[in-house]
Structure formats: C-alpha cells, structure tokens
Design goal:
Layout: E1 2-5, E2 10-14, E3 23-28, E4 32-39, E5 42-47, E6 53-57, E7 62-64, H1 66-72, E8 77-79, E9 83-87, E10 92-96, E11 100-101, E12 108-111, E13 114-118, E14 122-124, H2 131-140, E15 151-152, E16 155-156, H3 158-168, H4 177-180, E17 185-186, E18 198-202, E19 208-214, E20 219-224, E21 226-232, E22 236-239, E23 244-254
Antiparallel strand pairs: 1-4, 1-7, 2-3, 4-5, 5-6, 8-11, 8-14, 9-10, 9-13, 12-13, 15-16, 17-23, 18-19, 18-23, 19-20, 20-21, 21-22, 22-23
C-alpha cells in the first residue's frame, strides 16, 4: 500500500470521487495517509491520524515511498498559530493551527529533501496536559465558522474542533463525535466536570450528534454555527441569545 502527504494548507476529503461530493473531513498540512484505491484523478485514502476514509484529488497530495513516509511521521511538531507561513528556498505555504511539521526542531522542519522555516508558535507532539494551555488552544478557534467536515480555523465542525484541540496537546481522538465518546472515563455528575472534559449530546433517537469541551464555571466551547461559548447544565447547552436549549446532554467523558 502506498502513502501520501498533504503539502497544502488544507484539502477536503470527500465521500466520493467528484468535487460535487460531500466533504466528510479534511487533511491539514503535513498529515499523512495510506492510498487504498485509485480512480481517475482521485485517491481513496485512509488517514494515518484517525483512520478516516474518503477521496482526495491526486493533485492535492504528494505520494511517498515507505522510507519517506516513515521519516515524515517522526519528530512531528504541531503548529499553534491560526495561520503562519512556512518558507523554503523554493516556496511559501500558509500553515494553519493544528498542522503537522515533520522532523521539527522548534524552528525548522523537513519534508523529503525540502527544508522549511516556521517562525510561529508550535509544540512538539507530546502530551501537554496543563489546563490553561488547553483553554488557550480552544479559545484560538472562537468565532471560527462552522463547516461540515472542517478541521481548520477557517471552517470546522464540532468533532473536528475537539479533535484538533486534543491533537495540539498530544492526545489522539477519532474523527466523529460518537467515536470520541468511546474514549476516556465517565464523569457521573455535571458538578464534577472539569476544564478539558468532553460533553456529548444526542438527538431524539439517542444517537450522539454533537460534542464540545467543558470550560470553567459551567461553560462549554463548541462549534455550532460558529465556535462559541454557551452555558452547560445537567440538561444540555443553553443558548442565551435564543433563550432555549440547543443540545441535549448525553454523557461527559474525561480523556485527559
């Protein structure tokens, strides 16, 4: 099985091999995948980060030999700026929050034979469990527009939001809300919830359809229309602007 890497800021992963098809997720710069099928100008891929499958246009990925793939997943840094350029002698690329920086030494990273300089804030791919740091990352996304399948500050969905927050602190989450709900341990009471816990919400059939991250003082930050902060209680998320509940609480999980 061949592999590939995303060398653009962000590219869509689609449900089928056409630009008209639904975007189901995204790959950020530096993220890698396995190519499991080829069809015309498209690759069907499985992402290395979360095992998500979908179709990406061939022109938006760079194929890798196995030894190059193995190198690209070593000593990975994570970009913490909303957007900041990486430059090489050949090009300049906007790098978005949550992107991966292979073979990173704090300033420089390398992909294949090309060396880049990244001057923005970053962190090595290791666990950073300080609650103030987690909150700081989450708040960087505040007012980012909601986008189905999105994983960037310029368009993000609820589970993409929580996934990228936790990527920045060195904890790997699956892509969809119902998958993320399988991680961690249950927090039995809303009063026991702590900053960084994940709250999951369900529809009338009991299916988990939404996720957000708990903040202090019974608040939650989540992507719904935009990344926003609302009140959280034992029933769910209360939208003060609309003066009604927008989501019904299913479960709270602690993954830190």
């Amino acid at each position: 099985m061949h592999s590939a890497i995303c060398l653009l800021s962000v590219v869509p992963i689609r449900a089928s091999f056409t630009h008209k098809s639904e975007q189901i997720s995204q790959m950020l710069f530096g993220e890698t995948c396995q190519i499991i099928e080829r069809k015309m100008e498209w690759f069907k891929v499985k992402t290395d980060y979360d095992d998500y499958e979908g179709w990406v246009q061939r022109a938006q990925l760079k194929e890798l030999a196995k030894k190059d793939h193995d190198t690209c997943v070593q000593q990975v840094g994570i970009a913490l700026e909303i957007a900041s350029n990486a430059t090489s002698t050949e090009t300049s690329i906007p790098i978005l929050l949550g992107s991966s920086l292979p073979q990173f030494d704090g300033i420089n990273f390398k992909i294949l034979k090309e060396k880049f300089i990244y001057n923005g804030q970053s962190v090595q791919n290791e666990q950073q469990l300080n609650s103030a740091f987690i909150e700081k990352i989450a708040l960087k996304f505040l007012n980012a527009p909601y986008m189905w399948g999105g994983r960037s500050p310029f368009g993000i969905d609820c589970s993409g939001f929580t996934q990228i927050i936790f990527k920045c602190i060195g904890i790997q989450l699956k892509r969809d809300a119902y998958q993320q709900a399988e991680a961690g341990i249950v927090v039995d009471f809303i009063q026991s919830a702590e900053l960084g816990d994940l709250a999951f919400f369900h529809n009338d059939e009991g299916k988990i359809i939404h996720v957000g991250m708990v903040l202090k003082e019974q608040k939650i930050i989540h992507a719904s229309g935009k990344v926003r902060i609302d009140t959280l209680d034992h029933y769910g998320i209360f939208d003060a602007e609309k003066k009604k509940y927008s989501h019904q609480l299913k479960i709270i999980k602690r993954v830190l």
